[in-house]
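Recap from last week: sequence in, structure out.
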Amino acid sequence: MLDKIANDQHKIIWIDLCDPTQSEIHDVEKEFDLHIPSRQELEAIETSSRLQVVNHFIRVNLPSTLHVGTREWPTPVGFILSATILITIRFQELPSFEAAKQVFQNDKHKGDSADAFTHILEQMIEVGADILERTSHNTTNASHDIFCRYSRANKRMSKRSQPRLRTVLYNLGNYGENLSQIRSIQLGLQRIIPFVLENGQSWMSQTVQTRLNTVLKDLESLIDFELHLTNRVQFLLDAILGFTNTEQNDVFKVLTIVSVIGIPPTFIASWYGMNFHFIPEYAWAHGYFYVIFLTTLSVIIPLIWFIARGWL
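Predicted structure tokens:
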């Protein structure tokens, strides 16, 4: 899809290529005498491929960009910027681009291509901030689920809590993946903005430069917050695994105690189960009840000892 956005003078200043056809790419290349990078070129991660200046056009790209929260594969985004035109190349609908179009078209003081470029970055930062805020809220709920609902005070609820803990573990994995994608986007933007400011300073307005510097400062604060959330998600993952290991240890402890308690009655049963002709207790009138009492006592004594030691 090829979408053209104009300013108040009906001058085309932004061409948005969303999953373009070969015909649309050819038309744009012919009109502006430039090369539109392919998806493979946009996915290149080396700096020399991501940041270029070719024939007065600043070409920058993000190898991995995605509206975090979807299950679609990350898609690259490319920007070709000059004093007169902005060309964006993407292969998926992105909310930040649609929001930038809406804001730019509703702006009473529509600017130039650099202004449109700045609107996109501002919307990307805003979308990223919203996602980080949601992730922060979700991790707070996950923390409550882990440390409050499934504390030792609710040990009797452990069987019913296991499915819930699995769900929390799955969600934390998704949060970690989302944060990883956000960090990749943020680090990409952190490289792009200084490069654009350096090479476009001669024709960018002071207002646009100020806005881009503000976006750069916002990025720094979001990166710090994202790092905090990443550490928090990792802590919660470790906590769930710690609780799981503790429960497994409790199970093994119970099995060990049961096996130890079972040794004395097994010994008594084996003793009196020997096939000797003469065993005095066989002739006792209350020999049967004596063995039952002895067997029971051999279970109770170790059990009391384990309880006194605090192992049960």
